[in-house]
Design goal:
Layout (H helix, E strand, L loop, with lengths): L5 E5 L4 H12 L3 E6 L4 H5 L3 E4 L5 H8 L4 E4 L10 H22 L3 E5 L11 E4 L12 H15 L6 E7 L2 E2 L6 H11 L4 E2 L5 E2 L2 E2 H14 L9 E5 L5 E2 H11 L8 E2 L1 H17 L10 H8 L2 E3 L2 H7 L7 H14 L3
Parallel strand pairs: 1-2, 1-4, 2-3, 4-5, 5-7, 6-15, 7-12, 8-11, 9-14
Antiparallel strand pairs: 10-13
């Protein structure tokens, strides 16, 4: 087998991060996690927890000592908020990671990016990694993740091999973000089908997504095709977004969404909400934001053949099986 490695996972207590940690531990690697809070469930499985903040360079450098590879998954996520908060976490944090890798002589860095780094609000149909970054972004999250991705890919060189993974719409057990948000909006009665309801989207089951990170890490070495490259990761089988949402609602014993709203109207309402929230400096997410409207009304499908070719990525767990696991979890925890 392979020699076990010593990995640092930033954000290892997060949704995707924790699956990456578990898969590394399962195969016998040793894992450090840099996180702001303490995670007893990670300690239980033998993880070495380093408390600290990626925005503080000394914290990052301490966590990087004696490590063979860094999986950088920590990020500030969200569709609304102050640009500067996203910038500090996503850009400054990533700069700290890159500099610490170089200072500590770590040869490999796997960065968790997002499909939204190359999304400006239009339909994306079977898009591949040759698509350029857009001129304008709809959210500070996408914009700062794009800056971070460029820094990571630009840092690929003689002493550091870097790769960027771009998942789209990650779902699965322990997700605190996507499915819970759908369920909450449905409960509030505020969910509307944006547009004609026929738009397709790719989704990514979380365990497949974590495995893609490990595969990329294993194939990332000097002279490999992965060096300095970005990769889309999905299930490889798009779903009709609103059918998928209604499938989740049905399974959770809730009525399907049937009311429509034109995407133009929704976008206009969202713009008003965002303006009001900005003026009054309300930090929580508005009921509707422009990025969410565009995400829900457009098609997002991505070509994963580059990941298949360069590191043998195959989505082993089907969307059906992934949903079944997710529903079991949701019902168990009555979410």
């Amino acid at each position: 087998g392979k020699t076990p490695m010593k990995a640092l996972v930033t954000g290892g207590g997060g949704f995707l991060g924790r699956y990456i940690v578990e898969q590394l531990i399962d195969r016998g690697d040793s894992v450090h996690v840099l996180a702001r809070s303490s995670y007893p469930e990670l300690k239980k499985i033998g993880v070495d927890l380093v408390q600290g903040n990626i925005e503080i360079k000394d914290n990052v450098l301490d966590a990087c000592r004696g490590v063979d590879i860094v999986f950088h998954t920590a990020a500030k996520v969200g569709v609304f908020g102050r640009y500067n908060d996203f910038y500090k976490s996503n850009v400054v944090g990533t700069q700290n990671i890159i500099e610490s890798c170089l200072l500590a002589g770590i040869p490999k860095l796997v960065f968790t990016s997002s499909s939204s780094v190359a999304y400006g609000g239009e339909d994306q149909v079977n898009v591949d990694e040759t698509i350029p970054y857009p001129k304008k972004y709809l959210s500070p999250y996408s914009e700062t993740k794009a800056i971070a991705e460029r820094l990571v890919l630009g840092a690929n060189g003689a002493n550091l091999c870097t790769v960027s993974i771009r998942p789209h719409l990650i779902f699965g057990p322990r997700d605190k973000y996507i499915i819970p948000a759908i369920l909450k909006k449905a409960k509030d009665g505020t969910l509307r089908i944006m547009g004609d309801g026929k738009n397709l989207t790719d989704v990514s089951y979380v365990e497949n997504c974590a495995e893609a990170h490990l595969l990329a890490a294993d194939h990332l070495k000097k002279g490999s095709p992965l060096c300095g490259q970005a990769y889309y990761i999905t299930q490889g089988k798009p779903v009709v977004l609103w059918e998928w949402v209604n499938r989740i609602l049905r399974e959770m014993g809730m009525p399907p969404v049937q009311k429509h709203i034109s995407s133009k109207t929704a976008y206009a309402i969202a713009a008003i909400f965002e303006t009001i929230y900005r003026i009054f400096q309300i930090s929580k997410e508005p009921p509707l934001s422009r990025v969410v409207v565009r995400q829900l009304a457009t098609t997002h499908t991505y070509n994963i053949s580059k990941a298949k070719r360069d590191f043998g990525y195959v989505p082993k767990i089907s969307t059906e099986e992934g949903l079944a696991k997710t529903f079991r979890y949701l019902k168990l925890y009555k979410l």
